[in-house]
């Protein structure tokens, strides 16, 4: 593993989410199991000493029930089943084309037992996809379906590489945009939604999430004196942009998507009867989880 460099900057957030999925996978009451999460996260721990670019993954004391790690792990644990359920429902209804925009270290092509005639296109930046591929190759991981990684910058033109890789815009698609919009500006989000719409056959679905306002450093309500935790929070906050600035229904409707599912991370935390992190217990900030269906004109 020593020659496999883990990603940094915005790419480090993919390691963070993989780590959180590995924590959930260890719980006796887990909502999902993601064995590759631990493999991806441990690769980073083995090969780099924590620093400001790649802060430590996990709390110093190993106790995920306190502070910032409780927030991160709850957030990821709550959003993952939202996406999983919508994706598996669409596939059960016959959809065989899935696009993960900002796939990161997502392992749905491995863990969801998708039919072998399903194609999962995974778009992310080169540094993340390269790290992912090296780890998958080392592990000799076998996807249950066809997986097609495509290195792109999602703020630039990416339809050419997707079409060249075999994406068929005449087929209904499930678009999974997990953990991305908050890192983009309102206009980049609008452009992304427009592009996704231009590639979507009627019946396609878009599943995504965003914050009702841009998170700030002071939103870490649980506080932490741990330098690595502070570095981790600061790094995450540095990556944030506004995301979409209108309500989920309006934002979707702007590009011919009709809202078909809406909840938020705090509501899911209550629904699963888990303790609510202080960061999610703030009335002025909502972490929306939403699904839209593409409508023909
Ligand atoms: C928080 S991670 C989420 C990854 C994955 N969806 C998950 O939930 O585990 C954010 C991901 O967005 C990717 N990303 C952010 N901005 C991007 C851009 N402009 N182009 C391509 N990928 C981008 C990062 O590389 C990173 O893998």
- CATH fold-type name: Rossmann fold
Q: What is the CATH architecture descriptor?
A: 3-Layer(aba) Sandwich
Proportion in β-strands = 5-15%
State the total count of DSSP E strands.
7
The molecules bound to the chains, other than polymers, are: S-adenosylmethionine
Q: First CA to last CA: what distance?
A: 51 Å
Sketch the topology as an H/E string, one letter per element. Answer: HHHEHEHEHEHEHHEHE
Shape field: globular
Biggest sheet overview: 7 strands, mixed
What does the radius of gyration come to?
Answer: 18 Å
CATH class: Alpha Beta
Q: Can you say what the CATH homologous superfamily is? A: Vaccinia Virus protein VP39
Description:
By secondary structure, the protein is of the alpha/beta class. The chain has a single domain (66-226, 240-294), classed as Rossmann fold, CATH 3.40.50. The protein is 39% helix and 15% strand. The chain is built from ten helices and seven strands. The protein has helices at 12-25, 35-47, 67-92, 108-111, 126-139, 159-164, 186-198, 227-239, 248-253, 265-271; strands at 97-101, 119-124, 146-151, 174-177, 205-211, 257-264, 287-294. A seven-stranded mixed beta sheet has the order 3-2-1-4-5-7-6. Helix 1 crosses helix 2. The longest helix is centred in the N-terminal third of the chain and has 26 residues, at 67-92. The protein is globular and about 55 Å long. The termini are far apart. The relative contact order is 0.15. S-adenosylmethionine (SAM) is lined by residues 10-11, 13-14, 17, 102-106, 124-125, 128, 153-155, 178-180, 183.
